[in-house]
Amino acid sequence: MRVTRLFRTMLGFARSVVERVTIEREGPIKVAMRPRAGRERCGGCGGKAKRLHGTRGKAREWRHLGAWGRRTIIKSTVWRVLCQRCGVRTMDVPWARTGSVFTRVFENEVAWMLQRTDQTTVSRYFGISWCAVGRIAGRVVAEALDGSRLDGLVFIGVDEICYGRPQKYLTRVVDHISGRTVWAAAGKSAETLGLFFAELGEERCGAIEIVTMDMSAAYEKAVRDHVPHAEIVYDRFHVAQLLTRLSTRFAGKRYGWPTRSRRKRSSRHGGPC
Ligand SMILES: [Zn+2]
Predict the structure, then answer these.
(1) How far apart are CA 221 and CA 225, in angstroms?
(2) How far, in Å, from the CA of 165 to the mean position of ligand 1?
(3) Among 93, 165, 253, 268, which has the minimal tally of Cβ within 10 Å of its Cβ?
(4) Residue 242 to residues 222, 249, 263: CA-CA distances in angstroms?
């Protein structure tokens, strides 16, 4: 079996041809490829391009999953194409997502691992930057996002997720019936949640009956503004937390128990709490 044929079978990329394989004593395995002739597609919409644009293509490289413990690089010439819908765009290649320097298979592997461990571990394992891992996650999620995920929402929950240092927030909306996260955006304000309702549209907003949330005034305002007919149900955990805090404060006043701030202060100075 010829090496090029072996690599074509091993890589399994559709609509593409392996032209040459370079294996040296040291360094990465380099596979020169090209999309099959006459199958040029637009990198913007993925549709079939009208024709190639310009006379010169650009040499590009993509990192693929390693083979036999060696780094594998895919090389190809990328052209600009004329698309009826998007105008002049860089052509789409079958083995990678538009704008990426990694192959589709490599990115899928990174995304799979990212679901099981933290971003720093993933970046060290694959030998890519922390930011590159984030961008890969964005591309994979954007592609896999189900367009119908916002249809038929009736019973939803809104929650905030805190992350990073200094602290940043993410607003998340879940569908309680399917148990899936259907929407998320940076921030925790009424405007942030308002973006979700704007994306949902008037008709789908009208179908929402119940919204569960913590006792956030911002989220409550957004719900009152956009889905005033929906019933708001406060999260049991946050209600219990508030009741515990109030009863502790009441008992403190009544029986002279130290307050939370006094307890913190005395424990910091090593005193009794
Ligand atoms: Zn296009």
Answers:
(1) 6
(2) 40
(3) 165
(4) 22, 11, 19
The pLDDT value given to residue 272: 43
235 contacts: CB under 8 Å, gap ≥ 6: 157, 159, 212, 213, 214, 215
Q: Structure pTM?
A: 0.62
Question: Residue 192 has what pLDDT?
Answer: 92
Q: What is the pLDDT of residue 109?
A: 94
Contact between 93 and 75 under an 8 Å Cβ cutoff? The reply is: no
- Amino acid 262: pLDDT: 61
**CA 109 to ligand 1 centroid distance, Å:** 27
CA 127 to ligand 1 center in whole angstroms: 33
Q: How far is the CA of 149 from the centre of ligand 1 (A)?
A: 25
Q: CB of 80 within 8 A of CB of 88?
A: yes
Cα of 49 from ligand 1 centre, angstroms: 7
CATH superfamily placement of domain 155-234: Ribonuclease H-like superfamily/Ribonuclease H (3.30.420.10)
**What is the 65 CA–ligand 1 centroid distance (Å)?**
29
10-residue stretch averages of pLDDT, the chain, 273 residues long: 79 82 88 82 83 85 90 91 89 88 94 92 94 91 80 92 86 90 90 91 92 90 93 82 77 68 59 42
Q: What is the 86 CA–ligand 1 centroid distance (Å)?
A: 4
Q: Ligand 1 centre and the CA of 41: distance in Å?
A: 8
